[in-house]
Design goal:
Largest sheet: 5 strands, antiparallel
Number of domains: 1
Number of strands: 5
Strand order of the largest sheet: 2-1-5-4-3
Distance between the termini: 42 Å
Strand content: 25-35%
Helix content: 25-40%
Order of helices and strands: EEHEEEHHH
Number of helices: 4
Length: about 170
C-alpha cells in the first residue's frame, strides 16, 4: 500500500450475520483488507478510538467505534465503526477530530439507524430506509473528502491556514 492510499469504511454489526461493510470509499478496496477490518470489529476492545497496524500489509487501520440509538436494534442500539486505512507510517492522529465530528453527525440523526436495514423484510418502510441510506452516504462522502484534505494538507485546520497566511510578508 502506498502513501497515496486512503480508504474510509463504515461497518455495522448485524446481529444475525456479524460485521458487514455498509459503505466504503474509494470503491476499489481489496477483499483482503475488507476481511481484516471486519475481523477488527469482532475484537473486544474497550476503547472507542483505536489504531491497529498490520506490518505484513504495511497498513494502519484507525477506528472509531460508536453505538447509536435504534428502535430496531438489539438492546435498542446499533453498533457501527468508522475505519480509515492508510500506510502504516502515516500519522493518523489528524483523523481523530474528523471521525469524531462525523460520528456525532451520525448520532445526531435519530432515524439514521434505519439505513442499516437496507437488506430487510420488504414490509418495512423502504422509502424511509432509502432516505436514511442516502443521508448516511452523503455524510460518508463528506467525511472522506475531509479526510483526503487533511491527509493532503495536514496543517489545514480551522484557522491554521489564516495564521500561515498572516506570517507572509508582502
Amino acid at each position: 500500500m502506498s502513501n497515496d492510499i486512503l480508504h474510509l469504511l463504515l461497518l455495522h454489526f448485524n446481529s444475525l450475520t456479524g460485521p458487514e461493510i455498509v459503505l466504503f470509499f474509494p470503491e476499489d478496496i481489496s477483499d483482503n483488507i475488507c476481511n481484516k477490518v471486519r475481523s477488527i470489529f469482532d475484537l473486544d476492545i474497550d476503547e472507542h478510538f483505536f489504531e491497529i497496524t498490520i506490518k505484513k500489509d504495511n497498513i494502519k487501520i484507525t477506528n472509531l467505534f460508536l453505538e447509536i440509538p435504534s428502535d430496531w436494534g438489539r438492546g435498542n442500539i446499533e453498533m457501527i465503526m468508522l475505519s480509515v486505512i492508510t500506510d502504516d507510517t502515516y500519522n493518523t492522529t489528524l483523523f481523530q477530530e474528523i471521525l469524531m465530528e462525523y460520528g456525532n453527525k451520525i448520532k445526531g440523526n435519530p432515524s439514521i439507524y434505519k439505513a442499516f436495514y437496507h437488506k430487510t423484510d420488504p414490509g418495512i418502510d423502504n422509502n424511509e430506509i432509502k432516505k436514511q441510506k442516502t443521508q448516511l452516504r452523503s455524510l460518508m462522502v463528506e467525511c472522506f473528502e475531509n479526510l483526503k484534505s487533511r491527509k493532503d494538507y495536514p496543517d489545514l485546520k480551522a484557522g491554521k491556514i489564516v495564521k500561515k497566511f498572516k506570517k507572509l510578508s508582502w
